[in-house]
Amino acid sequence: MAWRGNISKSLKELRILLCQSSPASASARTFVEKNYRDLKSLNPKFPFMIRECTGIQPQLWARYDMGVERCVNLDGMSESQILKSLEDLVKAGGATKA
């Protein structure tokens, strides 16, 4: 999982939008609880933003160079699927810089 250390090289910002209590956001909350500390320690100056809002559908937003953004809807995804989506977003950012 070397891509975890390349988040700050591939992206400019990562936002996770979730609801504090809805079942739709349960796996997103679990993902944050289990992975935030590790991701932040590997990318200490990178802006990981967790945005909580009642009733919102869980989403993962990645911002790249030149203000380009990509969104992944996390509703119905498992924690491992969310991790795979993040990996895909990071690798897509690295591909644009190659």
UniProtKB/TrEMBL annotation:
Keywords: Disulfide bond, Electron transport, Membrane, Mitochondrion, Mitochondrion inner membrane, Respiratory chain, Transport. This is BnaC02g38290D protein. It comes from Brassica napus (Rape). Its main location: mitochondrion. It is a peripheral membrane protein. Belongs to the complex I NDUFA2 subunit family. GO terms for cellular component: mitochondrial inner membrane; respiratory chain complex I. Residues 20-93 form the Ribosomal protein/NADH dehydrogenase domain. Accessory subunit of the mitochondrial membrane respiratory chain NADH dehydrogenase (Complex I), that is believed not to be involved in catalysis. Complex I functions in the transfer of electrons from NADH to the respiratory chain. The immediate electron acceptor for the enzyme is believed to be ubiquinone. SUPFAM superfamilies: Thioredoxin-like.
